[in-house]
């Protein structure tokens, strides 16, 4: 199933807001909302779309951002560990490792480009 996404991010002071809108090839749509706060160069996130979504993101240097998030779904703890490589202002590559109850499950790669 094909997935298309549109992402809106805005930052005011130390406050962070993000809205992800997804559309699947079957026509169904999902919107996810995230809020956060920058504390000592670390972004601490939560989501009103998930009841338990602690996450952090930090600049690892060398044009790389790291992200770690947890959520529980169907009594399974899912952990995502992600690296985002910033290739240019409008181009990045993400690799995400997923763990289920602490056991490696999968890895995915996503290339993102900002359209003019």
Walkthrough of the structure:
It is a single chain. The protein has strands at 3-12, 15-24, 29-39, 42-47, 55-61, 64-73, 76-88, 91-100, 103-113. The mean pLDDT is 92. Strand 3 and strand 4 form a beta hairpin. It has no helices and nine strands. The chain has a nine-stranded antiparallel β-sheet with strand order 1-2-3-4-5-6-7-8-9, with no helix packed on it. With 116 residues, the protein is mainly beta.
Tell me briefly what this model is:
The protein is an all-beta fold and 116 residues long. The protein is 0% helix and 76% strand.
Topology overview:
Blueprint: E1 3-12, E2 15-24, E3 29-39, E4 42-47, E5 55-61, E6 64-73, E7 76-88, E8 91-100, E9 103-113
Antiparallel strand pairs: 1-2, 2-3, 3-4, 4-5, 5-6, 6-7, 7-8, 8-9
Distance between the termini: 26 Å
Give me the secondary-structure category.
Answer: mainly beta
Fraction of residues in helix: under 10%
Strand order of the largest sheet: 1-2-3-4-5-6-7-8-9
Q: Which segments are poorly predicted (pLDDT under 50) over 5 or more consecutive residues?
A: none
Q: What is the H/E string? A: EEEEEEEEE
Q: Given the C-alpha coordinates, what overall shape results? A: globular
Number of helices: 0
Largest sheet, if any? 9 strands, antiparallel
Mean pLDDT: 92
The tally of beta strands, per DSSP, is: 9
Task: Provide the β-strand percentage band.
Answer: over 45%
If you compute it from the alpha carbons, what radius of gyration comes out, rounded to the nearest whole angstrom?
15 Å
């Amino acid at each position: 199933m094909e997935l298309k996404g549109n992402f809106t991010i805005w930052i005011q002071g130390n406050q962070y807001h993000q809205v992800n809108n997804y559309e699947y090839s079957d026509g169904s749509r999902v919107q996810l909302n995230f809020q956060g706060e920058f504390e000592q160069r670390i972004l601490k996130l939560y989501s009103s779309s998930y009841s338990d979504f602690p996450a952090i993101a930090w600049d690892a240097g060398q044009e790389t951002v790291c992200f770690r998030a947890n959520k529980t779904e169907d009594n399974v703890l899912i952990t995502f560990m992600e690296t985002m490589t910033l290739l240019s202002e409008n181009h990045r590559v993400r690799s995400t490792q997923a763990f289920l109850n602490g056991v490696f499950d999968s890895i995915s790669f996503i290339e993102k480009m900002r359209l003019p």
